[in-house]
Amino acid sequence: MSPKISAKSVDLTFSTNDGPVDALKDVNLDINEGDFVSFIGPSGCGKTTFLRVLADLERPTGGTVEINGVSPKIARESRAYGYVFQAPGLYPWRSIGKNIKLPLEIIGLSKHEQSERVKRVLKLVDLQDFENKFPWQLSGGMQQRASIARALAFDADILLMDEPFGALDEIVRDHLNEQLLDLWKTTSKTICFVTHSIPEAVYLSTKIVVMSPRPGRIIDFIESTLPNERPLDIRDSSEFISISQRVREGLRSGHSYE
Fold this sequence. Notes:
This protein is α/β, with parallel strands linked by helices. 37% of the residues lie in helices and 24% in strands. It folds into 2 domains: 5-80 and 157-255, 3-Layer(aba) Sandwich (Rossmann fold); 91-155, no CATH class. Strands 5-6-7-3-8-9 form a 6-stranded mixed sheet, with helices on both faces. A 3-stranded antiparallel sheet has the order 2-1-4, covered by helices on one side. The protein starts with a strand and ends with a helix.
């Protein structure tokens, strides 16, 4: 079976007033359909940059990337993915339902189809009673769930998530991690997830990509041996602790890579 996402020898160098900045170096990675892949590494290591390459928001300066067997540009034009940013990015003057409808309006779906999709995705993120509320009436965690619903409204096979829970407190973050796992199991989507949290990466993922400081390289690729059913207390298990330790060792070795 061909990989859902494939990166081969990907480099990305930014041109700046102070000279070239190498963001990614020789990134090779295959992601299969239905994988939940977390990217973890120090700030500035290229995690978000790689996600932006997949989304055709940045163009690599070397190597190739394919999504569903086509270029990121063609994948973007065919709406192959939904993107969830670090901040919810909801318009305060539009209700939650209308925020979710906005991209559907832009692509020209009928009003009936827009309404059906909004109801479906709000139910998926457990916000079905908040369609007519405004963002300022929701908590930070609920706003981020609305942002996820907006990304799901495209009904794309791939969900790109750039540290969506980083600004939330630990209790809310744990709850949303549980909900995201349930959502992933319900929809079978392929998820690429950027995080700075080792426990979050280990808890959520089927595979973990550990990246070095800039220029970002993949220094470890960990296939999780945790079961699909993951209550929060699995984080106390010896298997969870062992995987976490491997991630931590990879991050430490990455800092001494040069």
